[in-house]
Write a structure and sequence with these properties.
With 134 residues, the protein is an alpha+beta fold. It has 7 helices and 4 strands; from the N terminus they run βααβααβααβα. It has a single domain, classed as Nucleoside diphosphate kinase-like domain (Alpha-Beta Plaits, 2-Layer Sandwich). A 4-stranded antiparallel sheet has the order 2-3-1-4. The longest helix is centred in the C-terminal third of the chain and has 12 residues. Bound molecules: cytidine-5'-diphosphate and magnesium ion.
Length: 134
């Protein structure tokens, strides 16, 4: 079964919409395999977002993701990666349609509620990074 690594970001925890987000996945018949709450430290944040290390938004992204607790989730199901990404909507919350998670709850292109893996390769790397080998 395909797996996606999801991070419910600090703004979403602050807005008390953890349950709402998880309910949207379950309604699409996706399964919550693993779930934990944690505060991501700078080192882990940089590792997770290493593909963006040379981008101009990197520093604000790291500040944001380490600013408060997050919920880290492994979501599984048929086509889980694509399904999760389409429930989330595009990166820029302002361009995301109503009915998507970012369209309904996001603030802008940085403060955008949630992360979802973009491919099988990044999903397995990210699951290993946050949950270890098993
Ligand atoms: O999260 P997603 O895969 O949609 O976007 P990304 O291009 O992989 O960027 C990772 C994260 O960096 C985004 O979710 C935003 O929080 C942040 N970002 C930003 O602050 N400014 C941008 N121009 C692009 C992304
Ligand atoms: Mg991405």
């Amino acid at each position: 079964m395909e797996k996606s690594l999801v991070i419910i970001k600090p703004d979403a925890v602050g807005k008390k919409i953890i349950g709402e987000i998880i309910a949207r996945f379950e309604k699409e018949d996706l399964t919550i395999e693993k779930l934990k709450m944690a505060r991501i430290d700078r080192k882990l944040a940089c590792e997770h977002y290493c593909e963006h290390k040379d981008k101009n938004f990197f520093e604000s992204l790291i500040k944001y993701i380490t600013s408060d607790r997050v919920v880290i989730v492994v979501v599984s199901g048929e086509d889980a990666i694509k399904k999760v990404r389409s429930l989330i909507g595009p990166t820029d919350s302002k361009k995301a349609e109503k009915g998507t998670i970012r369209g309904d709850f996001g603030t802008d292109i940085t403060i955008n509620v949630i992360h979802g893996s973009d491919s099988v390769k990044s999903s397995s790397r990210e699951i290993k990074l946050f949950f270890g080998q098993n």
